Amino acid sequence: MIVRLIAGCSNYLNHLIAAVGAAVVLSACATPAPAPSATPVASPSGMSPSERASFELDRKAIMAMAGDYRVRFDFTETVSFLKDYRVKEPSRSGGYEVVRVIEDRGDFISLQHILVVEAGEEKFPIKHWRQDWRYEPESVLIFIGGNAWENRVIPEAERAGKWSQTVYQVEDSPRYGALGAWDHSNGISAWTPPAELRPLPRREATTRDDYYGVLAMNRHAITWDGWVHEQDNSKLALIDGQQRVIAREQGVNTYRHYADFDENVALDYWNATKDFWAAVRAEWTAFETPGTTFGLTVKGEPEPIYTPLLELADKIQSGETTTDAAVIEAKKVIAQFTTRDVGTLEQRLAKDVAER
């Protein structure tokens, strides 16, 4: 049951809590929150002193997102752009979340989230989303609608001094990406990319079919007590072959430091399964060749992918299977539901409607 509940992401935690009767939702990863390092990590060569200083400030801001948090998610539709469309009721949810660094190569930082649901005396670990940060990337994985992505090549002049953020789903398939620069002026460290397309938020993916994606601006800013993810979202539909914004939405996700919980359940899960998930990440990364596209043959929420992968991880932790055996099965699942033949957006969305 818990595996299937993973369809609810952080903005959908209230439904997850209701479904399992949980008293509290927590999150943790295997390693402790990183402390600021006195020794700078390796940085790209050829930097001027000012570029190196800026690079280190950027890294400090990204690393500051690792920690233990009380999280609140607030989304409010603000305006309708269709005559017959009425803005929806605001969405409010929250929980507790811990973010950890699982890889740091200097110009690449990977942050992983893992949830723990407590239902009475029972406790369940749930692997959550992941965000990867890359400095001056050769390409960025951009969502192009209909469960397909483009590995967009970034010209050298355009990527100079910038970081990409790529967000991945619970089974490490991609979700969305963008390229932007960190700014550290006026006492605030903030990363603000141009708006890029993003899949339907999970809080609406299972309840709405009147739009196919979100043109989203995602700002991440470090605060005195954590960090905040601000969103300016335009909801897109394909109407009579034309792309239309049907409504706009403002989102504010706040992460405030909080650490009053037992994270052993998540620690045990991650320690038992991290090698499996590293192999799964590598399998997905193979699709990220610059200048290419790929997609999922599953429409909407990719339950046929995340369910077996999460179940394999559970079996590793329980001792029912080995990591090597689980990786073989995971590769079969990924191969079954991925394709390089993505077609057009119209074709992908038409197929989505036909399969509902």
Tell me what the structure shows.
With 356 residues, this protein is of the alpha+beta class. The protein has one domain (2-354). It is built from 9 helices and 16 strands. The protein has helices spanning 2-5, 13-20, 49-63, 156-159, 202-205, 264-285, 303-318, 323-336, 345-354; strands at 24-27, 67-80, 91-104, 108-119, 122-135, 139-143, 148-153, 163-168, 174-183, 190-192, 196-198, 213-223, 226-239, 242-257, 293-296, 338-339. The strands form 2 sheets. Strands 2-3-4-5-8-9-10-12-13-14 form a 10-stranded antiparallel β-barrel. The protein has a 4-stranded antiparallel sheet with strand order 6-7-15-16. A hairpin with a 6-residue loop joins strand 9 and strand 10 (190-192). Helix 6 (264-285) crosses helix 7, helix 6 (264-285) packs across helix 8 (323-336) and helix 7 (303-318) runs antiparallel to helix 8. The longest helix is centred in the C-terminal third of the chain and has 22 residues, at 264-285. The model is unreliable at 4-39 (pLDDT under 50).
